[in-house]
Amino acid sequence: MMNLKKTARRFWTRDEGAVTVDWVVLVSAVVGLSIPIVAMIYDGMDVAAGNINDTIATMSVTRY
């Protein structure tokens, strides 16, 4: 019984894997928050590309 208590105490006080868990949570949060940001940028680029296309289509080129 004493060995079980000692093993359990050692298990709960060790923290070698805690940093890995922290990094997994941190990286998943960054990736999860990046997805909506990329979607907003993509939508903005579509509008900007349309404006550039309209501007180029209305330009006239003069030849000398």
- Rg on CA atoms, Å: 29 Å
Strand and helix order: HH
Helix content: over 70%
Name the structural class.
Answer: mainly alpha
Nearest-integer average pLDDT: 86
Largest sheet: none
Beta-strand content estimate = under 5%
Dominant shape:
rod-shaped
Cα-to-Cα separation, first versus last residue: 99 Å
Walk me through what this model shows:
It is a single chain. This protein has 64 residues and is mainly α. It has a domain at 18-58. It has two helices and no strands. The radius of gyration is 29 Å and the shape is rod-shaped. The chain starts with a helix and ends in a 6-residue tail after the last helix. The chain crosses the membrane at residues 21-42. This is Flp pilus assembly protein, pilin Flp. Keywords: Membrane, Transmembrane, Transmembrane helix.
